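User: Sequence in, structure out. Go.
Assistant: Echoing your sequence, followed by the structure tokens.
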Amino acid sequence: MSDHSEAFVAFDTSKLRNAVAIADGGRTGEIRFLGEIENTGSATAKLARKLAAKYERLTFCYEAGPTGYGLYRQIKSLGHECVVVAPSLIPKRPGDRVKTNRRDAVNLAKLLRAGELTAVWVPDRGHEAMRDLIRVREAAVMDLRSKRQQVSAFLLRQGLHYAEGKTTWTKAHMNWLASQKLEHPEQRIAFEEMMLAVRQAQERIERLEQAIRTAVPDWSLAEVVTALMAMRGLDLISAATFLAEIGDLSRFQTPRELMAYLGLVPSEDSTGDTIKRGPITKAGNRRARRMLVECSWSYQHPPRVGQDKQEKVAAAPRAVREIAWKAQCRLHGRYRALIRRGKLKTVAVTAVARELAGFIWAISREITTARAAAK
């Protein structure tokens, strides 16, 4: 057994090999590079057994990235602590321009021992599977948007512009597209191929959204999804997308923590008596933040519950319905007040999105409390 009963082990992961460094416990403990091992379960288990024979307690870490959470789950199954680190929050020294696998592993081990690393939330396998499905749907939406832009750009080069209405890709716009006649057969073929790609992209989105609707009832957060659908601007897809990206909201002790996690709080550069606040930080999960901002545009309209929304509101508990109505009144008033002060619509909607996150947190807490009381 070594002089220190505790050690901190860091991986710098890659597709084929992982660089490994270790820091002995204590401020003066040795920090050394152990070398590289294959990125396989057997190699990781062998390393863990070897180190466990020398130390009473091991804590592992690695950066979140494309290698996923398999390494985390394996280390936890071996009975050791593991931290998946947020790469953007790793402290970096100004002027440090040398980056190697060895240096990264050693630096991670040193910071892990010092407690300077910020861990990300690791989803269970079921939640990760739902997140994968929802992210594929998001990629399909972006693909559809790109293909539509290609069609519009192609027609614009031919001097054709849809001027019959402000909104495109409606039924009227599709009829206008179908009526276009191009001079050269090559152009007609190109146009039909692009329109076929648009239709295929739309069908792909419909299939994925149906798959999401089928999967949600069996999801651990299905009850929260149903409750969030009582909120204006949130339907099943947007609620599931937000929760898939954020995960269990109960880990946020206050709504301000959730707002900060979403990057919806103002940045600040204050010193002494000078207070200087800037744009929002845009930290955290960009997908969840974008979805929340898109949903917040609906609060520019006066509070009301439309006919299509009534069934979704009725499916939520009474306490949730009260929170949802309070949110409508509060957020519409907030939007109108900011517009009267001369704020841009985008700025006002972003401010609404920040407060909307607080109402979502309150609904999640209400569901969690009710579930605990029912046990």
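User: And one key feature?
Assistant: The radius of gyration is 26 Å.
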